[in-house]
Design brief:
This protein has 116 residues and is α+β, with helices and mostly antiparallel strands. It has two helices and eight strands; from the N terminus they run ββαβββαβββ. Strands 1, 2, 3, 4, 5, 6, 7 and 8 form an eight-stranded mixed β-sheet that branches. The model has no long low-confidence stretch (mean pLDDT 96).
């Protein structure tokens, strides 16, 4: 059985258990759409971001609520990039993100603030 790192990350805060919680799956490349939906249902937050490889941008993201896929979610984007920055996966600067509404720029400051 494969395992995937699955997180609950608080956006819009630096305080634990505050802000707006989002699910984040930082390496979702092997998950099917049905599995992503199941994970989102299990996490039971408003949206979960699944980060995937992309040929058009630095990464692709798919967003799922507990009941369906959604095109875009701001707080899950911010939570995902904040987590990647804290883990040292990405650095401050502009990053591109492929979403169902197109390729977006996401800006990270040196302090870890995320803008989109």
């Amino acid at each position: 059985m494969e395992s995937y790192r699955t997180l609950l990350v608080d956006a819009f805060t630096t305080d634990p258990l505050a802000g707006n919680a989002a699910g984040v799956v930082p390496d979702a490349g092997g998950l099917s759409e049905a599995q992503m939906q199941s994970v989102a249902r299990e996490l039971a937050v408003s949206e979960t971001a699944f980060l995937l490889p992309s040929e058009e941008a630095d990464r692709r993201v798919r967003y799922f609520s507990p009941t369906q896929e959604v095109d875009l979610c701001g707080h899950a984007t911010i939570a995902s990039h904040g987590f990647l920055f804290e883990e040292g996966v990405i650095e401050a600067g502009t990053h591109t993100l492929e979403t169902d509404v197109g390729v977006l720029d996401v800006e990270l400051t040196e302090s870890g603030a995320v803008w989109m």
